[in-house]
Design a protein that fits this description.
disordered N terminus; 4-stranded antiparallel sheet; 435 residues; alpha+beta
Amino acid sequence: MPTRKGRAKLPVWRQIVRPHSCACGLLLLMLAPLAVGQTTKRITLDEAIQLAAAHSPALKATRTQIDQNKAQEVTANLRPNPVLAWDSQFIPLFDPSAFSTDYLSTQAQWDIGVGYLFERGKKRQHRLQAAQDSTAVTRSQVSDAERTLSFNVAQQFISVLLAESTLGYATEALNSYQQTVDISNERYKAGDISEGDLLKIKLQTLQFQTDVNSARLAKVQALQSLRQLVGYEALPGDYDVVGELAYQPLKLNLDDLQATALRNRPDFAAAQKGVTAAHSQYTLAQANGKRDLNASFNYSRVAGINTGAFFFNMEMPIFDRNQGEIARTKFAEDQAQFTSTAADETVLTDVGNAFQAVNSADEVVKLYVSGYLEQAKESRDITEYAYKRGAASLLDLLDAERSYRGTELSYRQALATYMTNVEQLREAVGTRQLP
């Protein structure tokens, strides 16, 4: 086909694709979600905590307690129902012949009335206040459950990171040691080492392979446990985490941490609100000691005459003045006060212990990064270099491999312990933002 002057001829592939560009674009749009769906979902620690707060079945069950308490507030604020009563008297049931309109109009008695219980002592107001104070305590308890869940998620997340780091090291160590095995095979063929030494080297490979399998299993189990904490519906079965074991030194002050904990810890707030709730129960018991008034109005028709009557009755508080319940709630108020004091001391102790644990783990990690980790690696490398050139024995090589392997695994465990202790301190303080 001739082309216009000054205009390049389209390549063959452009001529083929261009007429169908709309269809190709539509096909790409249809395949895009499939490509995205094949990507493994990866979550960070903060995302895991947020997902757990939104999807954890255990936490959802705990939160229903707030709604239950709100329903009790509705019950506590209800007024007594009025009472409707009626009766008919002097009906000649056993003398049917006496039934007549005149008899029912002039001889029978008809009554209908309505009554109401007037609560004294502001019982309804005290009931409502007691229910609201109980709801406030429950809110703090639910917040405390969220705090505990956040720590459990963080702890399990670190377990995944530890398993992942251990798996990476174990795989790398296995590959590295496999080179030693290959070199040993060549030395055996050349007559530099005996068959017994070669077999010992090959048998040592089993330990590295076992480490890889154990680390792989530990990661799978840790991921499953984390998914259980977060909620199965929130994560797919093949999800993974984003992060690594890392040492981040913190500069903390114990007094600041304890002061922050007393402001933020929901369990301590629940204990304080428990004192208010206990006092509300005490004032309610005092109000219940007041006797209520029953009042009613009756309409009667007797012998053709219409009459009305008012009735009033009230208990005489001679024996029962609710004195037992008043005394019990007073002791309960004292108990709540002691519990609040104990919660104060518990918070200070938790923060102090967590603070010391972080410092101790910090010192251990510093020992590794200050030189021991590098020294173990250098010792292994030197021994391996010497062995490959016949200047070191097999026992020296195996001992250096075990020392380096143990040091690396211990270092990773020390990092995980440090990160876990930091999370424990966050839980003890009651906030993830440490002062």
